[in-house]
Design a protein that fits this description.
Layout lengths: L1 H20 L3 H14 L8 H22 L2 H11 L2 H6 L1 H21 L6 H16 L37 H16 L7 H63 L6 H12 L5 H6 L7 H9 L15 H10 L2 H16 L5 H12 L16 H10 L2 H13 L5 H13 L3 H9 L2 H10 L6 H15 L2 H8 L2 H12 L7 H11 L3 H9 L2 H8 L5 H14 L14 H8 L32 H15 L22 H12 L1
Helix pairs in contact: 3-4, 6-7, 6-8, 13-14, 15-16, 17-18, 18-21, 18-30, 20-21, 21-24, 23-24, 24-27, 26-27
Subcellular location: Cytoplasm, Cytoskeleton, Cilium basal body; Cytoplasm, Cytoskeleton, Microtubule organizing center, Centrosome, Centriole
Organism: Sparus aurata
Keywords: Cell projection, Cilium biogenesis/degradation, Cytoplasm, Cytoskeleton
């Protein structure tokens, strides 16, 4: 009973505190009068007293760690207790923070002027460098702080003229006084009533809980949809089994009466029985009349299935994003590696889909709006998400040009750029950044490239050449581009040929490029490679040769109407076909499988298409006896699969 009365008194005290804060004087008077009348105790507000006490302890600990030179304790307290809006926006606070970092950096030199503790000083210099590269980077533009950016590179700051003020006896007392003044203002307790503070805390907590529940709801909906699909399939299988069972019972009865069952009939029954569980081609090719075949397959179909894949633990993405921006370089590298591993090492299917959805919905790179994405569209939204980060493309292209030629990082950057080149906006930016010229120079020395670099460079080059701006860029140095592409046709890595052919087909749309190709006898070169026994490749060459020998199209003059704009501007009539609008539209004509690639692709997707095409039309390609070609430069290199596996494993 005593606890209830104490709680009630505390609650009434908070109500009175809030009414006084909002200046409800008459209401406070009536409230006091009624509480006395009912014999209710009203506790005095304790919030401000407790907050004042806590503030004094924090201020004392900050000053104590300042005097002791304990930078770890100091900046931990500083980060936890100084409001972010003060640290990040107030220039005085930023200036003071810089001086504090300087103080803690040179503290070992001031404590033992005669014998410097070099190891401790080096450790503090490392922390100071980290600060200069992160929060302190903005102060590099100010004249006052610019000299201190040289501090990590001066062997003995105590005798350097630029830092003599730091070692004066008056410097630390002055800095400590500034710190005390700042803390007295920054740590000044808020007068917010406890009731309002509880309400705000409650709302924030509820928002976090609701967000978590929404994520759980999405996951539950996904699971429900999966179970509904499984149930529908089970229902259909059950109905099919009832029919098949009835037929088998009839057959058994007929056998008892002396009638024979033909093997063809048994085969047809078993085909129907297993058609829902296996691919049609496998079912058709299985001989169910062989004793034991059908029974073994039936037993295998009801064998225990693997348990559901466990979900990975959820993460605190707000803390993750903060450390990815403000954390030390090594921590940021480890976090990026861990996030990559979580995605690439997760089990394909539900587990990986959940990880990817979490990255997107929590806006891991703080760029794209939160959006629930279906599993079929994860890859698409990943590219969309990354393409919304303007600085990303610039950073990638800079890394591509500056990284060492054989480094794994460079290969990964190239793969990322090739994936992004499926987006039109990214293509435009890459062309403007003269990535086409860089790729031509890179592909010129193809024998020095790994299969991974060669394949993704060729695919990226083709994607950029599909754009009109990209074609015009190639036309500026048509002879060099054509020389590189025709050399690549003779390369021992035949997986690059679809991209080389696609690039040739695209740039030959430009009349000046066609003329240059004729002068270089490109047709004769293609005829030479057409001797190889590869029908798909030969048909692509025929398309390119046909384009090479085509007459120039009628080109409109400047400001002259042409095409659809000519028809709709000068000859627009009444919409006479409205009555037929509901007719089923004719599908758009798809490019022939024999034509060179005419849309952006990525090596993995194109490889899947080619594999299916080869298996359906020709079976597996014959061995290397059909790979005869004119002698070209060649060099030993790892296989494409090994190279890709090596490049991905090195970084992730």
């Amino acid at each position: 009973m005593g606890d209830i009365l104490a709680t009630e008194a505390d609650l009434l005290g908070m109500i009175k505190e809030y009414l006084k804060f909002e200046d409800f004087e008459e209401t406070v008077h009536s409230f006091d009068k009624e509480c006395k009348k009912k014999g209710k105790l009203v506790s005095k507000p304790q919030g401000s007293t407790l907050r004042d006490s806590k503030t004094r302890v924090i201020q004392k600990d900050l000053l104590s760690s300042f005097d002791d030179g304990d930078h770890k304790v100091f900046f931990e307290l500083w980060t936890d207790n100084i409001p972010s809006e003060v640290k990040d926006t107030d220039t005085e606070a930023q200036s003071l923070e810089s001086y504090l970092h300087i103080h803690f950096t040179i503290f070992p030199l001031r404590r033992h002027p005669g014998r410097h503790d070099r190891a401790e000083f080096e450790e503090r210099i490392s922390h100071f460098k980290q600060y200069l590269e992160t929060r302190g980077a903005a102060l590099s533009q100010t004249t006052k702080f610019l000299p201190y950016y040289a501090l990590p590179f001066v062997p003995n700051p105590t005798i350097h003229p630029s830092f003599k003020d730091l070692f004066q006896d008056s410097w630390i007392p002055q800095l400590r006084e500034k710190l005390e003044q700042f803390l007295s203002v920054a740590l000044k307790p808020s007068n917010t009533p406890r009731l309002l503070h509880l309400y705000v805390s409650f709302i924030e907590t509820c928002s976090q809980v609701i967000q978590q529940l929404q994520l759980q709801l999405v996951e539950s909906d996904r699971r429900i949809a999966s179970f509904v699909r499984k149930f529908s399939k089970m229902k259909a299988d059950y109905q099919s089994l009832i029919g098949i069972t009835a037929e088998l019972v009839d057959s058994l009865e007929a056998t008892v009466s002396g009638k024979m069952i033909s093997p063809e009939y048994l085969q047809s029954v078993f085909v129907r029985l297993f058609s829902s569980q296996m691919r049609q081609s496998v079912v058709q090719s299985t001989d169910f009349t062989r004793p034991g075949t059908a029974s073994s397959m039936l037993r295998a179909s009801i064998a225990p299935q693997p348990k559901d894949v466990p979900m990975l633990p959820s993460l605190d993405y707000e803390k993750l994003k903060k450390d990815l921006v403000e954390g030390p370089d090594r921590l940021r590298s480890l976090l990026l590696q861990a996030l990559c591993w979580r995605l690439t090492r997760s089990l394909p299917g539900e587990q990986r889909d959940t990880v990817l959805q979490a990255y997107i919905s929590n806006d891991l790179l703080e760029r794209y709006s939160t959006k629930q994405v279906g599993p079929k569209h994860y890859g698409f939204y990943c590219r969309v998400y990354l393409s919304q980060i303007p600085i990303l493309l610039k950073l990638l292209t800079e890394a591509l040009r500056t990284e060492e030629k054989d480094s794994l990082a460079r290969e990964n950057v190239l793969v990322a750029l090739q994936k992004l080149s499926l987006r039109r906006s990214q293509q435009t930016a890459m062309i403007a950044d003269d990535l086409i010229g860089w790729l031509v120079d890179e592909l010129q020395d193809s024998d020095c490239l790994s299969d991974c670099t060669l394949q993704y460079s060729a695919a990226l080059f083709m994607n950029l050449c599909l754009r009109t701006k990209g074609k015009r860029k190639c036309a500026e140095n048509a002879k060099h581009v054509l020389k590189v592409l025709t050399d690549l046709l003779g390369h021992e890595n035949h997986e690059i040929r679809p991209y080389v052919n696609g690039a040739l087909y695209s740039i030959l749309c430009i009349p000046s490029v066609r003329q240059e190709a004729k002068e270089m006898s490109v047709e004769e070169i293609l005829r030479c490679y057409s001797k190889e026994e590869n029908p798909d490749l030969n048909r692509q060459f025929e398309f390119i040769i046909k384009l090479l020998n085509s007459e120039d199209l009628l080109q409109p003059q400047p400001r002259e109407l042409s095409g659809e704009s000519l028809l709709t501007t000068e000859y627009l009539g009444i919409m006479t076909n409205m009555a037929k609008a509901k007719r089923k539209s004719t599908p758009l004509t798809q490019p022939s499988a024999d034509e060179p690639l005419q849309r952006p692709v990525t090596p993995s997707s194109n490889r899947n298409v080619n594999t299916v095409r080869q298996k359906s039309e020709h079976g597996s390609l014959p061995p290397s006896r059909h790979n005869t070609r004119p002698p070209t430069r060649s060099g030993s290199r790892p296989s494409t699969a090994d190279s890709l596996r090596h490049s991905i494993g090195g970084w992730m």
